[in-house]
């Protein structure tokens, strides 16, 4: 692989104008396709096969009037006052005239007015699903009651779900990344070129993703996740290759040869690192959740493009930059401060000397950080976690104030039978059982469809939609109605769907974690031809994941230091965050593992002692890995400032995960373990050694081939180069 990438790097360097033109053309074509075919994103976190989803699908077929999006308009009179029936009726009439609305129910008729007469709820039913509600319809709905004087009118419900938008706060991460690049390289040209290269890759990936959104159902989170990952890995991959190119230039190598060598060696590690991220993200399909599969594939596609850009466009840009990627004092070809060792070498000696206490402190410390993860709860976000001041949040808080938090977590009990008589009898029995269930506040009277074969009942829990008590009530209701004969009874609605999605994802998480850990052992065994190094890497990855889960739970769920990160209402973690985090951190952890340990193996193979090889691996790569980790942390951290709770928690967890894995696990525990294992670290049973292919991540075969070619040239002066 190294030889192929070497030739690709030299070709891109030599034909840099054409390579750049091809990428710009591809970017323009993808941008045009995105503009022409871009479709809307959705927030349908559905789960095929669950009770709530089956019930929802059945309702759309047998009770289409109740299958569309719903809205809830909450009205409140001034403190001490009462709502006027005429004023409320005017708001109800206005809601009924919103395009796409088929029903708006008067709260005085439905009985959805508080005993003191101050608060009222207007239930609004749309004809189409929430994804089909247009922006114009949503705007008209939001304007209902704007002219009502003396009343506070807020608009909530699933119809008010807002698309996630990219704001200016994410640019802070890019600015920090640029600063880190300038400090690392000491050259504005190198920093700017690396950043520009990554941005082109991200732009191409995002354009391609939006072009496909017309035929694929993307959640609003998917493009943000793709952007987040594409930026982080794009900058890091370019950083690794550019750093190796600079190293070769300071050693006196010609520019084209340096570009080829950098692409062949560091580029091989980039291919492997990118492949692990892509495999881990694409592997999310094993969980069996469509929206999560699409999110994983979207992010995987962006990462794959980042790898391709780093291997082709970056060598071309190196050709344009030439020696200007070096600081001015190094452009003469001489190495600067070659005799002075960097901090990486000094840190490596400290770690190898104190390996046992460092190992104990690291493992115990990360284990302690993992403890809060024992209490981890998962749920889909609701309006209670929306940004303060947003329409959905204002409506949620006002409903909780007037009616109680359970009115924000309404459940729908759907009773379906073959005959109207059997369905009605089952509905009556179910209503009695549900009303007597702990955690249930109220059950509405049954509402049959015209045929009488499907009956709906609204169930109001006592607690909010993300509360553990509501989850317990849902399970209790399902157990109590399971024995009713003559009809099928199922709970659905946004709250029930969220509970079912979270339960399935929680059950799938251990399986996916074992799959990813096993995959890491296999891949690293291929790369390093060792048995203990992959096991050590997998155990380190598990420590990273555990500590990251623990810290995220402590802040986002338990509320410790929540205010520092803009978390005003602590609550359960987003249900798909743990699985997504496992997949992404796996790829990033293997990224750092390869760049550090490959140099250790290279020096050990060339005759260094295990201790010296460990120090050398850390000394030569600590600076680059540190810069890469800081860049990733900055990019991910920039998304913590977004209002959307999903993106905020994902950005935070990834930033923390990168910091823990890079600085605690890879730069500290890994060299300590390697020093402790000594020669045993590189042991591989012969039968396995014969079976495994040689991937040559370090580029040893490339070095041998190039040396042989130079020897042949020296022996045959007539040979044409």
Automatic annotation (TrEMBL):
<feature type="transmembrane region" description="Helical">
    <location>
        <begin position="262"/>
        <end position="291"/>
    </location>
</feature>
<feature type="transmembrane region" description="Helical">
    <location>
        <begin position="297"/>
        <end position="321"/>
    </location>
</feature>
<feature type="transmembrane region" description="Helical">
    <location>
        <begin position="618"/>
        <end position="640"/>
    </location>
</feature>
<dbReference type="Pfam" id="PF03176">
    <property type="entry name" value="MMPL"/>
</dbReference>
<dbReference type="InterPro" id="IPR000731">
    <property type="entry name" value="SSD"/>
</dbReference>
<feature type="domain" description="SSD">
    <location>
        <begin position="188"/>
        <end position="320"/>
    </location>
</feature>
<keyword id="KW-0472">Membrane</keyword>
<feature type="transmembrane region" description="Helical">
    <location>
        <begin position="171"/>
        <end position="191"/>
    </location>
</feature>
<keyword id="KW-1133">Transmembrane helix</keyword>
<keyword id="KW-0812">Transmembrane</keyword>
<protein>
    <submittedName>
        <fullName>MMPL family transporter</fullName>
    </submittedName>
</protein>
<feature type="transmembrane region" description="Helical">
    <location>
        <begin position="646"/>
        <end position="669"/>
    </location>
</feature>
<feature type="transmembrane region" description="Helical">
    <location>
        <begin position="535"/>
        <end position="556"/>
    </location>
</feature>
<dbReference type="InterPro" id="IPR050545">
    <property type="entry name" value="Mycobact_MmpL"/>
</dbReference>
<feature type="transmembrane region" description="Helical">
    <location>
        <begin position="576"/>
        <end position="597"/>
    </location>
</feature>
<dbReference type="InterPro" id="IPR004869">
    <property type="entry name" value="MMPL_dom"/>
</dbReference>
<keyword id="KW-1003">Cell membrane</keyword>
<feature type="domain" description="SSD">
    <location>
        <begin position="511"/>
        <end position="676"/>
    </location>
</feature>
<comment type="similarity">
    <text>Belongs to the resistance-nodulation-cell division (RND) (TC 2.A.6) family. MmpL subfamily.</text>
</comment>
<feature type="transmembrane region" description="Helical">
    <location>
        <begin position="354"/>
        <end position="373"/>
    </location>
</feature>
<feature type="transmembrane region" description="Helical">
    <location>
        <begin position="198"/>
        <end position="216"/>
    </location>
</feature>
<feature type="transmembrane region" description="Helical">
    <location>
        <begin position="222"/>
        <end position="241"/>
    </location>
</feature>
<feature type="transmembrane region" description="Helical">
    <location>
        <begin position="509"/>
        <end position="528"/>
    </location>
</feature>
